[in-house]
Design brief:
CATH topology of the domain at 238-450: Rossmann fold
Shape: elongated
Order of helices and strands: EEHHHHEEEEEEEHEHEHEEHEHEEH
Number of strands: 16
CATH architecture of the domain at 238-450: 3-Layer(aba) Sandwich
CATH superfamily of the domain at 238-450: Vaccinia Virus protein VP39
Helix content: 10-25%
CATH class of the domain at 238-450: Alpha Beta
Largest sheet: 7 strands, mixed
Oligomer: single chain
Length: 472
Amino acid sequence: MKRVNLPPVSLNGVPVRSAIQARSRGTPNSIPNPALNRQPVPPPVYRPQPLPVVLQRKCVVGVRATTVQPAAPKKPNPTAPPAYHPQPAPAVLQRKMAVRQASLQSKPAVVAPPAYRPQRVPAVLQSKVAAGKQLRKSGTPTHARIPSSATGTIQRMHPHFHDIGRDFLIKYPHASSSTSVGNYVGPVLATYQIETNNYESYEFDTNRFGVVSVPHQRIIGYRPTVGGMHPRGMIRSDQERIEGRSEVFLSEADLSGVMARQRRDPSLLDRVVVTTYEQAPNYPDYRENLLNLEGQGVPVLNNFDISDPEMAQRLSSLAPNSNIHFQMPRVPRIEGYSTQRLVADTLEMPHRLRRSDIAVSITTPHPSMYKKPGKHNQIYGLESGKVFGKNELVEAASDSDDDLEDYGYTHKQSTKNKSAKVAEKRKKYKFRSSQPYHCRSRNEIEKHHRRHDRDDDEGFGGGLSGQLLSKS
């Protein structure tokens, strides 16, 4: 093989082989480097170039966003709720809804109340209304005060049909208006309430407003005839109040019996006297009836115990030929006292007064209203006559006052605020003294009472616990 001699390879003018050998011996590189022999050159001067306008705007917005407030999180775009597609009701509910709609359609439609139109006064009552107008035009005042016993108390009432033509105290046109007088014309028929069996409004004829409709809450009661006639606190004695009067009604309960009688005969107000067993009877209509009667001048004697012999002296100034009446006497189950003794004490009152001119009448349930024969006589002792004493029976017939219910009378049991079935038919007994001015001795009275101190009232009616009270 033929050897070829190549020219030596050099690097920057230094042979490569010599350079390699020098490096392997650890000698510094002896290869000349022209770059190492150059002079240092200073770096170029930094000259910032202006940013384009678009980038400047973006930088300014970014700086403000980072320095003023953090960027708000992006809210998701609101999406509309899914559309409501009502589903048809099940067949069972559809049938129920159809039945409900049918029942609603069958009811009468609600209509507006009828317009108020004053009703014409019946021809029978026109004379009463005319008399009331003439009375008001005669110079009597159109304002009157409530009786002194009603100080601080204003009662409200429903006028009775038979009160047509009478003057009432009313508040019109407002509840705060001054009290004025109106002549009662009649109820407003359109205001009848089935629940209360009363009317809500009534018509009155007034001098100032003409015929007006007044709610029952603004009707105070009868126009008083004696209110304010006496100085405050100056009350006359019982004898002065009943002097000259001739009709006495004992142990009235709610006073509805006397109210009915005075509606039937208004002249009775001038001659009637009323007593009650309690000091203040507890009946819903008692206070209202009391104020109406006292306003018309009727004496009402409370706490009148018929069993007390001295109690009769409160009636000593009665007019000659007076009558004492007891409506439906009844005694509770009290040991030592009975209904028969109550009847006997009532018949004894003229003798205690030494007044043979005074008659006594007693109304009881009719004997035919009791199922057991003799039960009526067992309770009252009137059929056999064992309670007559020295009185004679002058009349015994069906009650002549059987129409009192038409005028507002309501019978009350002794222990209940309602009537008894046996009271639907009544009988009236009238007595007179068989001996002029006879007065029994105390021993005679006690002897008579000892025969009847058994209480024959068991099983019938009732009574006020611990009180001897007869209700009318």
